[in-house]
Amino acid sequence: MLIRNHVKRIAPVLLIAVLTGAFLFGSPIGAMDVMAKTVTDIYKVTPASDDLEIRLGNRKTVKVVLDAEDYAIPVKKVTFTSSKKGIISVGKVTYKKMTYTDWYGKTHVAYRAAVKVSPEKTGTTTLTAKTRSGKKVQWKVTVKNAFTEQMAEGALGFIKWMLEKDDLTENQKKDLNQAKRILELASQEKISDWLPDLKNSDGETVEDGITMDYSKKTDAAHISRLHVNYEAYRKLVAMQGKDAYRKIYLKDAYTHIDSLPNGGEPYTNFTVVAGSMVDEDRFDVYGSHNPHWGEISADFEAGYDDSVEYYDFASDEVWASTSDAAAAVYSWFSERDLVDQAVKDSGYQKSSMTAAQLDQALDQADEKGVIGHYLFCLYADHNDILGFASSSYGSLGHRMWQDEDVAKYTFKEMDDYVTEYLDETGY
């Protein structure tokens, strides 16, 4: 197997977060019990006087449904009104016959009265449902701008959204919570915490401030940067597929290349992406490999090689290049020119080189200049978990590590979640 020590490695509309209960037809319906439903089919029995929240930007309509004022008496007339016009629009009431079984096994018939409530602008109003008997139920409805809120939370908002998903494995929950903690700590970390003299790599004085600000478009954790992970990966895979040295490495390292997990390509997860974002933001200040590149999060103590989070890593690093993710990866491959020259000087032929000969050429190239970025591209494979992060300051951060017992996603799976999230928030 090729020697790999060239690279340092490391082994809503209607408050959707609240509406996670189930509507039980078998439960006795009280005088004014109400079921609320969003278009995503999330159900909850919503008692009278509950506060509801609708979020602009989610492009969804709330359905408020009144089943009965008394479980034995069908209700066929309900009016809905809003105390303040312009905040929400209240649609026409529709009715549907339904049956349900109570706790005693008795079957009842009632009419479901439903009204669509659409958010129009931010503010607070009171929604009132009045039955033909004159009884009322009211909700305090707050309309917020989800787009603005999600913009302000950037990647952290994305991770919080992921944590609300059902059926997450324990490894996925651990990964998401680690990533959440990393970003939260970075948003509390001052530059002077890790750069006491406030001097960058050129010796210039930098202004103190917070390392990470999700709301700034220039920040690596800004919502606009979420697709960068996939953009960088696609370029990486495309370049790897054309690389003769990569083929030598794979052939030597694995006897059954075709059967490798994920086609032999790397995985990603939220922890490594969050760490890349912190590294990238620190790079933007320092102008080079920052003094604390070995720390996965902002939670560290002076003198520690790894963060006090004690993640199971051996080492890691951040690289940087141009702001465009694909162009950055392309530039990393340009360091291969030094390897080509070393191969030529040694008299080797790419078509017949052995792994041992490639190792010798890499050692020679390493003595002539920087090839660490290319070595990352050369060695990244299915054993690795990679993360990329880009800011608008002209750099691309990266992190790579290995660990079998962690959550893993293909880059396509990760990007599909990003797409779903951005669509739902209306970004």
What is the end-to-end distance? 46 Å
Helical content (DSSP H or I, runs of 4+):
25-40%
From N to C, what is the helix and strand string?
A: EEEEEEEEEEHHHHHHHHHHEEH
- In total, the number of strands is 12
What multimeric state do the chains show? single chain
Percent of sequence in beta strands: 15-25%
Question: What's the pLDDT, averaged over the residues?
Answer: 74
Pick out the low-confidence regions: 1-49, 298-317
Judged by helices, strands and strand pairing, the structural class is: alpha+beta
Task: Explain how this protein is built.
Residues 1-49 and 298-317 have low confidence and may be disordered. Strands 1, 2, 4, 6, 7 and 8 form a six-stranded antiparallel beta sheet that branches. This protein has a four-stranded mixed beta sheet with strand order 3-10-9-5. Helix 1 (146-163) packs across helix 2 and helix 1 packs antiparallel against helix 11 (411-425). It has 427 residues and is α+β, with helices and mostly antiparallel strands. The chain is 32% helix and 19% strand.
Give a short summary of the structure.
Helix content is 32%, strand content 19%.
What features would you highlight for this structure?
elongated; 11 helices; single chain; four-stranded mixed beta sheet; alpha+beta
